[in-house]
Design a protein that fits this description.
The chain has 12 helices and 7 strands. The protein is of the alpha+beta class. The protein has 2 domains: 50 residues, no CATH class; 199 residues, Cytochrome P450 (Cytochrome p450, Orthogonal Bundle). The strands form 2 sheets. Strands 1-2-7-4-3 form a 5-stranded mixed β-sheet, with helices on one face. A two-stranded antiparallel ribbon has the order 5-6. Strand 1 and strand 2 form a beta hairpin. The protein starts with 10 loop residues before the first helix and ends in a 6-residue tail after the last helix.
Length: 301
């Protein structure tokens, strides 16, 4: 088996070659230690992501309070509809002007200083303001949430303790919003947007907030930092973006393609039937890891 452990020294620098070797030599890889199959070619990963009837999100981790990543339709569809109603475009756009102004003001201060630590001093500040506004949290509460994400990234065995710390943040906020709703996401979730019949249970709300906190405290800052590094290394494209800011969303999508996630629980699927790909038969009930980071770099696509 070709080793693709993202935490191994040297993986990041050599990831393109490792991904290429996986796609070329082991498009269906099997880890005997974990009993997990891995798909790395774009065509296979894209097909698996679209075929929930075969590659199911439902597994031993699924229960009555499971979140979107552990559900299949129709339960997934129903929960997604309620979550999207609360996390509306209107709610997000209503924060945009204030968040942009804060980001610009922060950047001006850092430019005047002459130097900064990009992720700590700027990106975490901006993303933290977003989470604070979205959830209705204080700066100290946001800092605690982000610290929990950092702990899980490097010491996943601490998950039970981290969950208790997150409950200590979110559950009191949820209780307060039930008594005095505001215009934040937590208020919309606990009140069902004013319709009690649409309100989610407390465990589901906590899980949803937890699900959002993880990318806000981890993937989002990493994505922004990667975009700065990649665009900074290509002065011609940097000039294009400065001249045409409307290209920025497309550029960010390209950053996410090149620096896609390597490991994430939502990329694990459970097979509902035997599947044979590239001469390898994966049995029903087998765990399959969809390696999006490798698929996004597949020259066959």
């Amino acid at each position: 088996m070709i080793n693709y452990d993202g935490f191994e020294p040297g993986f990041y620098e050599n990831r393109a070659a490792i991904y290429s070797k996986l796609r070329d030599e082991e498009p269906v890889s099997f880890d005997e230690e974990t009993g997990t199959f891995t798909l790395s070619r774009y065509e296979d990963v894209a097909a698996a992501l679209a075929d929930w009837q075969t590659y199911s999100c439902v597994g031993p981790w699924t229960n009555a309070n499971s979140q979107l990543g552990a559900l299949d339709p129709p339960e997934h569809t129903a929960l997604l509809g309620k979550a999207k109603a609360a996390l509306s475009d209107e709610r997000m756009l209503s924060m945009e002007d204030d968040l942009r102004a804060d980001a610009r003001a922060t950047l001006e201060v850092l430019v005047a200083q002459g130097e900064c630590e990009l992720i700590r001093d700027y990106i975490f500040h901006c993303v933290g303001r977003l989470e604070g506004r979205l959830f209705g949290l204080t700066d100290d509460q946001v800092a605690e949430c982000f610290e929990c994400v950092d702990i899980l990234a490097y010491t996943p065995e601490e998950a039970p303790a981290v969950q208790e710390r997150l409950k200590a943040v979110f559950l009191p906020v949820m209780a307060a919003r039930k008594q005095s709703p505001g215009d934040d996401l937590v208020s919309a979730l606990v009140t069902g947007g004013g319709d009690a019949s649409e309100a989610l249970s407390d465990p589901l709300i906590f899980g949803f907030l937890n699900t959002l906190n993880a990318p806000l405290g981890g993937l989002a800052p990493a994505g922004v930092a990667n975009s700065v590094a990649l665009i900074g290394a290509h002065s011609d494209q940097q000039a294009d973006l400065a001249a045409s800011p409307s290209l920025i969303p497309q550029a960010y999508e390209e950053v996410l393609r090149l620096e896609g996630p390597v490991f994430a629980p939502v990329q694990i699927r459970v097979l509902t039937r035997d599947v044979t790909l590239h001469g390898v038969t994966m049995p029903a009930g087998g765990l399959v890891h969809l390696l999006v980071g490798a698929a996004n770099r597949d020259e066959r696509a």
